[in-house]
Amino acid sequence: MNTFDDVWPRIEPVGGWLTREQARVLHDAVVALPPGSTVVEIGSHQGRSTLALSLARPDVTVVAVDPFRAGGKFGGPETRGVFEANLRRAEVRDRVDHVGEPSGDVRRGWRRPVDLVFVDGKHDVWSTRTDLLWAQRLPAGRVLLVHDAFGSVGVTLALLLFVLPSRSLRYAGRVGSLARFERTRPTLHDRAALLAQLPWFARNVGIKVLLRLHLRPLARLAGHRDTADPY
Ligand SMILES: C[S@@+](CC[C@H](N)C(=O)[O-])C[C@H]1O[C@@H](n2cnc3c(N)ncnc32)[C@H](O)[C@@H]1O
C-alpha cells in the first residue's frame, strides 16, 4: 500500500483541477476499500484523478470512463494520447480499464459490482444527473465523490434537484468543492448540511465572475489568493 505522500509527486505534474488535498481524499477512499474492489471514474481528462485513484493500491481496478470527444472543451484523441502516456509513465496502465463512451451508455450496459464512484464529467445539469445515477449501483455504505460540487452551476443544480431529495444518498462533507456522499438514508440534518453549502457556492460563482472580469484584487478581498478558479 502506498502512502499519499509517496504517490503525490507522480500525480502533481499531470494537468487538471484536482487540488492536493482533494487527491488525498480520492487516495484515502480507495485505501478504505476491500481488496479486489472496482472504482468507476467519470471524466479522466489527462489522468490526474485516475492516478490519484489507481496509485493508492495495486489490488483495485479503476474503470476510467471518458469518451475523449473531439472538438469539445477538453480535447479528443490528443488528450487521450496524453492520458495514456501519463498512465504509462506512472506505471498504472495495467490497473486502469479505459472505456471510451459516455457514462450513461456505459452505465446502461454495466453488470459488474462497483465499490466507489468518482464523478467529474461534463458539468451541465443533465450530464451530471446521468453521471450521478451511477450511485444507484453502489452497495449500502459505499462512497460517491463529486468534484466541482459547489463551484459549477450545473453540478450544484444537479445535486439540489436529484441528490437533495434522494432517500439513499447522504451528504458527508467536502474538501473544497469535492463533495463526499454515502449510500445510506439521509437524515434531515444531512439534507440541511448540503443546503448549508449554498452560500459558499454563491461565493465561488462570484469569484469566478470577478476573475473573468479581471478583477483579481476584489477576488483577493473575498479571500481567494489563487489566479485559478476556486476548486
Ligand atoms: C473536468 S474534466 C475531468 C478532470 C479529471 N477528473 C482530472 O482530475 O483532471 C471532464 C472530463 O469529462 C469528460 N466527459 C465529457 N462528457 C463525458 C461523459 N458523458 N462521460 C464521461 N466523461 C465525459 C471530458 O472528456 C473531460 O475529459
From TrEMBL:
The keyword Transmembrane applies. Keywords: Membrane, Methyltransferase, Transferase, Transmembrane, Transmembrane helix. GO terms for biological process: methylation. This is Class I SAM-dependent methyltransferase. The chain crosses the membrane at residues 144-164. It comes from the Bacteria. It comes from Nocardioides islandensis. InterPro entries: SAM-dependent_MTases_sf (IPR029063). It holds the Pfam family Methyltransf_24. The keyword RNA-binding does not apply. GO terms for molecular function: methyltransferase activity.
